[in-house]
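Q: Could you write out the predicted structure for this multi-component system? I'm mainly interested in how the pieces pack against one another.
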Amino acid sequence: MLEELKKSVCQANKSLVDHGLVILTWGNVSAIDRQSGLVVIKPSGVGYQEMKPEDMVVVDLDGNVVEGNLRPSSDTPTHLEIYKAFEGVRAVVHTHSTYATAWAQACREIPNIGTTHADHFHTAVPCTAEMSKEQIERSYEAETGVSIVEAFEGIEPMHTPAVIVAHHGPFTWGKSAAEAVQNSVVLEQVAKMASISFALNPNLKMNEDLVEKHYSRKHGKNAYYGQVVK
Amino acid sequence: MLEELKKSVCQANKSLVDHGLVILTWGNVSAIDRQSGLVVIKPSGVGYQEMKPEDMVVVDLDGNVVEGNLRPSSDTPTHLEIYKAFEGVRAVVHTHSTYATAWAQACREIPNIGTTHADHFHTAVPCTAEMSKEQIERSYEAETGVSIVEAFEGIEPMHTPAVIVAHHGPFTWGKSAAEAVQNSVVLEQVAKMASISFALNPNLKMNEDLVEKHYSRKHGKNAYYGQVVK
Amino acid sequence: MLEELKKSVCQANKSLVDHGLVILTWGNVSAIDRQSGLVVIKPSGVGYQEMKPEDMVVVDLDGNVVEGNLRPSSDTPTHLEIYKAFEGVRAVVHTHSTYATAWAQACREIPNIGTTHADHFHTAVPCTAEMSKEQIERSYEAETGVSIVEAFEGIEPMHTPAVIVAHHGPFTWGKSAAEAVQNSVVLEQVAKMASISFALNPNLKMNEDLVEKHYSRKHGKNAYYGQVVK
Amino acid sequence: MLEELKKSVCQANKSLVDHGLVILTWGNVSAIDRQSGLVVIKPSGVGYQEMKPEDMVVVDLDGNVVEGNLRPSSDTPTHLEIYKAFEGVRAVVHTHSTYATAWAQACREIPNIGTTHADHFHTAVPCTAEMSKEQIERSYEAETGVSIVEAFEGIEPMHTPAVIVAHHGPFTWGKSAAEAVQNSVVLEQVAKMASISFALNPNLKMNEDLVEKHYSRKHGKNAYYGQVVK
């Protein structure tokens, strides 16, 4: 069942280690098969090295385990909220990568202050609102997903495929597991550079025209970055 | 004598290098056999690469060498105080890892400002009080242990298995040598992220409900992180 | 056509990864054959690992592709402006290396505060002026080159072979692809050390006599650093 | 001539790269044969990888080349001043390691704020005074050595075997090339931790009794760190 997706999800989970984005078991990748509405996700608390495609867990959008002998990641309900709200998303990544998590702990959005950011994220990377006691007690992981969706009010999630959850850490997404992982790589680098930039100049602001130019030259209708894919 | 414990302590000492927690000979791991009350510890000033299980030194809780041709780590009396005061502890690790040591030098406890911290340490990681001249001259390493125990007044040491000693560096512990080392890995990462977060926002505070939620979902009675171990 | 130059440009592009200056496809190297006025440059959006000398694109100084099946780097017009304005330049490198980019995002020139800087760059590494909306819309990449040239009013570009483009990142150059890459390595290191120095002392200033001494002992008429090359 | 010393100096120079203390050719190690008063030093501007023991240059204490086909390091006169003034020194190391150089650029001594520092350096690591125009023009490298010697007025150089030269970078020394390199490793780590500590708490001060305790337990008459060497 979904063998190809399991392979790519397993591979994407392992690649988090190669990219220096996770230690121990602090990260997870999932991907969705939009036709069946089934989600393939990393099992909870399992090491990346020993992980095999057949260890991946298959759940439906209500969180029921459809296939697999292991428990799905405890962050599964957060992933599901993102799939339910953002139609274009095919894969979700969660890490505790150093600099993105530091911004999350500081409860600050990561402003768009450079073309590296603008090449990949159209707006600031939003930071979610802090959750109420009720939200935390009711259904913590699902409410984390709800707070992510709320943070994208007025922002197109496929143009800014990243968020930081207050006090917690980053989530990114994309049209494939590999792309979602790449967005985590970019987010961590952007977060690191921004923290250094703000130490050098606390009053930074980006030229809005430059934001538009950089984003559109890579992602706009008339994009001219990279090779033409036909 | 205690061959299995020596192997695991030797292996844990070597792993400090792999995790980037020590350079030169700046770190040591010990473990206790609670039945006999004997402690296996790294020899003093010996390189990690050449170290073998049979080089480990066995001491009793009064610090007498029971077996071994080498001197035990000069930090042995600190380890012993921890074993005597904290019953659940089976292994102790000391390093001079970069960020945890920087917090120690700054004489600041590491506040619980994120879920990465809350997943592993229930409270702030306490910083010991500065020692008096009398303490330093009397029995420096044992008094270091005493100051650690005092810092846990009102804190459950198995729920916050880490401390930073003022002007010095971190100690962590756990139910095995491997777990104690893992807690040193987590502490260093948490210390690094916290130093970046405070530079971005000096007035951070964590939601207490979130602390409880994260700690309990991993360690509470109804923990649901990881696979069920029976 | 220009086989040797293609080899050295390809090799220099790959070396950006080894030096930790780029991730993904965030950097490009070009070199010029001054006799023919032809420029060899990295193709756009192609991975460094799979890149081969024959993938390099040859363009003339007006930006017309003279040879090659792939699109040239989207930064090509910036490279061309530098070749047109600065006669001594034989190779140009662009990266988004972490610390140099952080200074660019902070819109601050990198002052000459140490002998490491003075050994390689005679003056501060200038930061370009922010571009107007008109410049951005007219011909963004060429105007980036124009703003670089303007930033060198009164500065000899072969004595300070580096610039940071406001909100964007660094460009360096040299008399060969290898030398231009080396200048990127130096720039990143100088940018990193300067960011740490300014955190320790925000009011730094360098002794001008020391600047002259260090630059001239390596690059002046009576240079005495290194072995005598005849 | 001095074959063993050449081997150890060559090896020590190469080890600077392994320890991450130098890039390009930014560092040099020398050692002295106190009986003959001859100094073996790295040749100027030569890469570490290709360097062989027979490339090392032998100079006397007046700087005359006694053996070798290559030019000695341009920093040779600085090394010689150190050998002439500090009798116990058998080897000298100069690097531009990142954090130690950042402190040098900030023209700040590195205060003794932790036991890691106190274990190796008895006092603050002093920063030299800025040189006058006359000094720089007269004999720059020798005057660098003079300013180092002056910075140790009232400090025992074998108890604090490290200095940072204002606007420039660190020098360390020891009783052998390997020990001098190790002191460079310690200095860089101490400099890094201190920069993080001061960001967390700008008003740090170390307990003097703790300084004495830590230094003396490793280096005092009754040292009890490490194994007994007889």
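A: Regarding packing and overall arrangement: Helices of chain D lie at 3-18, 76-85, 98-105, 115-120, 133-151, 177-200, 208-219.
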